[in-house]
C-alpha cells in the first residue's frame, strides 16, 4: 500500500476505524498532508440519526467491512500489518471486544502507532460515560471561561472536539511516529478531549494562579472584559472585532474612531465608560464603512464575517485558504510547507467504494474476495455510487 504521493506525510499509511467528529477530522488532516488513509466503515453507513459530514470523510479510500464477522476482523488486521497508524474513536473497550484493540493490532505489527480518541479517556470514573464537546469543555474549566457574564456559552464545538481532540490526537500520533524512529517500537496514544481542552487552558490557569485572571466571565483582558478586546455592533447590525491590546494599536483605534477617552487604556474603573463611547461610535456607521476607515492601520479592527462571506475575503482568497468542493467551499488543510505542500481535498468516497481494490492490494485473490463478498464480511459499492457527494 503506497502513499498518496506528495505532501510531508507521503509514504505513511493510516487505517481509520470509522467514527464521528474529531477522529475522522484527524484522518482528513493526515490524508491531505499526504498520508495514504483507508477508512474502514461498517456496511450500511453512518450511525443512525447522524448526518455524514463530507469534510470529515474526504480525500481517502473507503472500505466497507462487517466487524461482527471474524472474516471482516481479519481483513482489518491484514490492513494493520501494513500500516503505520490506526485511529479509532470507539467507547473504551469496544475495539477490544471486536478483536481490534491495541494488543490485537500490535501483535500483528509491533511498530504500529495506535491512536485512540475519546471524550473522557481510556481510564477514570467517567470513561464509559457518554458526552460531547460541551461536556468535556465544561469539566475542564474552558466553558466556564467562555461566554457572557451571566451565562457560559460554547464556542461551537471547537474547544474540546477539534482543538482538544483532533489536534492533540494528530500531535500525539506524529510524536509517537518520531519516537518510533529511535526505538523501533510502536505505542498507544490516548487522546482524551477533556485532557486536550484542559491543556488548551494552560495560559488561563497560569494567569489565574498568578492572580492575573478573575474566575468569572467578561472580567478579564481576553474574555470580553476589556473594551478594546471585544466585538461591536454597527449601524447595519453587522459586527466588527476589536483586538487593540498594545498601546500603539489602542491609539490607532481611538484615532480611527475620533475619540479622546479619559484616563488610560488599562484604567479598569473607566472601562464601562470607554466601552459605551466605543460602542456608540461604531453604531454610527455600517460595518463595511468602518472596515474602510481602519484599512491599512494597525488598530486591529476586522469585520466579523459570515460563513458565506469569509471565503470571499481578499486575504483568504489570496492565500487560498478555501477550496471549491462539490456543493460549496471548505477550508484546505493547514499548516503550509515550503517543499512538500499538502494535497487538494477530494470528494468523500461512498461506503465500500474501494473495498475490492484494497483487498487486492492486500494479496486477496479474486476467489477470496468473492467469498468475502458472498458471506457479507465486506461490501463493494457500485461504480455509480463510488463518490459520495452528500453534504455532512
Discrete helix count? 14
How is the biggest beta sheet arranged?
A: 7 strands, mixed
The H/E string reads EHEEHEHHEHEEHEHHEEHHHEHEEHHE
Q: What is the gyration radius calculated from CA atoms?
A: 25 Å
Question: Going across the major beta sheet, what is the strand order?
Answer: 8-5-4-1-2-3-14
| Number of strand segments | 14
Q: Which runs of at least 5 residues are low in confidence (pLDDT < 50)?
A: none
Helix content: 25-40%
Shape: elongated
Structural class: alpha/beta
Beta-strand fraction estimate? 15-25%
Gap from first CA to last CA? 28 Å
Mean pLDDT: 94
Quick summary:
The chain is an alpha/beta fold and 392 residues long. The protein contains 14 helices and 14 strands.
Write the layout of secondary structure elements.
Elements: E1 13-17, H1 22-32, E2 36-41, E3 61-65, H2 70-81, E4 85-88, H3 94-98, H4 102-108, E5 113-118, H5 133-140, E6 147-148, E7 151-152, H6 158-183, E8 187-192, H7 193-200, H8 202-209, E9 229-233, E10 239-243, H9 247-257, H10 271-282, H11 287-294, E11 301-303, H12 314-319, E12 322-325, E13 328-331, H13 355-361, H14 366-375, E14 378-379
Parallel strand pairs: 1-2, 1-4, 2-3, 4-5, 5-8
Antiparallel strand pairs: 3-14, 6-7, 9-10, 10-11, 12-13
Amino acid at each position: 500500500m503506497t502513499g498518496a504521493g506528495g505532501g510531508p506525510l507521503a509514504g505513511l499509511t493510516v487505517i481509520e476505524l470509522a467514527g464521528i467528529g474529531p477522529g475522522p477530522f484527524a484522518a482528513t488532516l493526515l490524508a491531505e498532508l499526504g498520508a495514504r488513509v483507508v477508512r474502514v466503515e461498517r456496511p450500511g453507513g453512518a450511525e443512525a440519526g447522524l448526518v455524514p459530514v463530507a469534510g470529515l470523510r474526504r480525500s481517502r479510500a473507503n472500505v466497507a467491512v462487517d466487524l461482527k464477522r471474524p472474516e471482516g476482523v481479519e481483513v482489518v488486521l491484514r490492513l494493520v500489518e501494513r500500516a503505520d497508524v490506526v485511529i479509532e474513536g470507539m467507547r473504551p473497550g469496544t475495539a477490544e471486544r471486536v478483536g481490534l484493540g491495541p494488543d490485537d493490532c500490535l501483535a500483528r505489527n509491533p511498530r504500529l502507532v495506535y491512536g485512540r480518541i475519546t471524550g473522557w479517556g481510556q481510564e477514570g470514573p467517567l470513561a464509559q460515560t457518554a458526552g460531547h464537546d460541551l461536556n468535556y469543555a465544561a469539566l475542564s474549566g474552558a466553558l466556564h471561561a467562555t461566554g457572557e457574564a451571566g451565562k457560559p456559552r460554547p464556542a461551537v464545538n471547537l474547544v474540546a472536539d477539534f482543538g482538544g481532540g483532533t489536534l492533540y490526537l494528530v500531535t500525539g500520533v506524529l510524536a509517537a511516529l518520531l519516537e518510533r524512529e529511535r526505538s523501533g517500537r510502536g505505542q498507544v496514544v490516548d487522546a482524551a478531549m477533556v485532557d486536550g481542552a484542559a491543556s488548551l487552558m494552560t495560559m488561563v490557569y497560569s494567569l489565574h494562579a498568578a492572580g492575573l485572571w478573575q474566575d468569572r466571565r467578561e472580567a478579564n483582558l481576553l474574555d470580553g472584559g476589556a473594551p478594546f478586546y471585544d466585538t461591536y455592533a454597527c449601524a447595519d447590525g453587522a459586527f466588527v472585532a476589536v483586538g487593540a491590546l498594545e498601546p500603539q494599536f489602542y491609539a490607532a483605534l481611538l484615532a480611527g474612531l475620533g475619540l479622546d477617552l479619559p484616563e488610560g487604556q488599562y484604567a479598569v474603573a473607566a472601562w464601562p465608560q470607554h466601552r459605551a463611547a466605543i460602542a456608540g461610535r461604531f453604531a454610527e456607521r455600517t460595518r463595511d464603512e468602518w472596515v474602510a476607515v481602519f484599512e491599512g492601520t494597525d488598530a486591529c479592527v476586522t469585520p466579523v464575517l459570515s460563513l458565506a462571506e469569509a471565503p470571499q475575503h481578499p486575504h483568504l482568497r489570496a492565500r487560498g485558504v478555501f477550496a471549491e468542493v462539490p456543493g460549496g467551499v471548505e477550508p484546505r488543510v493547514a499548516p503550509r510547507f515550503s517543499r512538500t505542500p499538502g494535497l487538494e481535498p477530494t470528494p468523500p468516497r461512498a461506503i465500500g467504494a474501494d473495498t475490492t481494490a484494497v483487498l487486492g492490494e492486500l494479496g486477496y485473490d479474486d476467489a477470496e474476495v468473492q467469498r468475502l463478498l458472498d458471506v457479507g464480511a465486506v461490501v463493494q459499492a457500485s461504480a455509480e455510487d463510488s463518490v459520495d457527494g452528500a453534504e455532512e
